[in-house]
Amino acid sequence: VFGSGWAWLVKSPEGALEIDSSPNQDSPLTVGYKPVLGIDVWEHAYYLKYKNKRADYVKAYFSVVNWDAVSGKFADGKKAG
Hints:
- With 81 residues, the chain is α+β, with helices and mostly antiparallel strands.
- It is built from three helices and three strands; from the N terminus they run E-E-E-H-H-H.
- Strands 2-1-3 form a three-stranded antiparallel sheet.
- Strand 1 (5-11) and strand 2 form a beta hairpin.
- The longest helix is centred in the last third of the chain and has 14 residues, at 67-80.
- It is flat.
- The protein starts with a strand and ends with a helix.
């Protein structure tokens, strides 16, 4: 994501996993995608701790993701879709 916004792992309407991004506070729900995992990459999310080192913030974020929960969100989405 360049600038402010979010990066998403989403389930497409066809049921595939895709990587998407959205500017500002926009949500993938508004275009028919089901969010499975999201990361806020606006400066306000990381600047106090990481300054301008967004990559360090992203690395730290992925070190604490509960992948079992993410997998469950995808599986739940498969049942609902």
